[in-house]
Design a protein that fits this description.
Elements lengths: L1 H12 L30 H16 L7 E3 L4 H10 L13 H13 L2 E7 L1 H4 L4 E7 L6 E5 L8 H12 L7 E4 L11 H13 L11 H18 L3 H14 L1
Parallel strand pairs: 1-2, 4-5
Antiparallel strand pairs: 2-3, 3-4
Helix pairs in contact: 1-8, 2-7, 3-6
InterPro entries: Papain-like_cys_pep_sf
Protein name: Ubiquitin-like protease family profile domain-containing protein
Organism: Mycena maculata
Length: about 250
């Protein structure tokens, strides 16, 4: 009840028609956060918002600084670079500079790179999964989490191994990432976020399917609160005044 009441309050305070502020992933309208409520399938924008919240948690906790977070653009770019590998342009293409820097960083820092990816381009299935390039381990491990329990597609695995091979001579392994089992057709995005949260902080339990509604409310409340923190005080006061007049 408390989560639902908080969500109702947050929803009433979300500015309609203005872009999401700095601190969230993009400039889509702020009010589109309502997609977290109900049984809506999450888009890349909402997945990136959850990754931004995870990034903020990591950046404000020195104990978590061996973790890196990257948005949903990462894996499509790795797939693109892998497809173009025959041209041998990975180390020279200007538009891949950020990908090279990222690969070097996680290898040299011994860090874990966390991302979410959509399987549509690979399997034609509208499904979100977790990928973690975990270089905190001696030889490195690719951790893959699919809430349906399906193994990593060969195309994706080949691209990930290829990318790792550009930055290390060691044989990077593959392990399953713990993730709750999906029992519907729309909760994969929330379960991906939960698996990432659990990886970063093992005190956060994997989601029980019975708690799915609460997980959605918690995500909506957390992301809305983070966004509202960045809204100029004058605009926020105006929103609060309007809200109080309508209640």
């Amino acid at each position: 009840a408390a989560l639902a009441e908080e969500a109702r309050m947050m929803l009433s305070m979300l500015p309609w028609g203005i872009p999401k502020p700095v601190g969230l992933s993009d400039s889509e309208p702020f009010h589109t956060l309502w997609h977290f409520l109900g049984t809506h399938w999450l888009t890349g924008s909402q997945m990136n918002d959850m990754l931004e919240i995870l990034r903020y948690k990591i950046n404000t906790n020195p104990a978590l600084m061996k973790n890196r977070v990257w948005g949903t653009v990462l894996v499509p770019k790795i797939l693109e670079a892998h497809r173009a590998a025959v041209t041998n342009t990975y180390w020279t293409a200007q538009h891949l500079g950020w990908l090279r820097d990222l690969g070097d960083d996680i290898m040299q820092s011994g860090a874990a790179l966390i991302t979410s990816t959509h399987l549509g381009e690979i399997t034609d299935e509208p499904h979100w999964v977790t990928l973690i390039f975990d270089m905190t381990q001696p030889n490195g491990v690719i951790r893959y989490g699919d809430s349906f329990g399906t193994p990593i597609p060969e195309t994706l695995l080949a691209a990930c191994h290829w990318w790792m091979g550009q930055h290390t001579a060691t044989n990077v392994g593959l392990e399953d990432l713990p993730i709750a089992t999906q029992q519907d057709g729309f909760s994969c995005g929330l379960l991906v976020d939960n698996s990432q949260q659990h990886f970063v902080d093992s005190s956060i339990p994997l989601t029980d399917s019975a708690e799915f509604v609460n997980s959605r409310l918690e995500a909506f409340n957390k992301i809305s609160a983070r966004g509202l923190e960045q809204v100029p005080a004058t605009l926020l006061l105006h929103i609060i005044l309007l809200t109080s007049m309508m209640t």
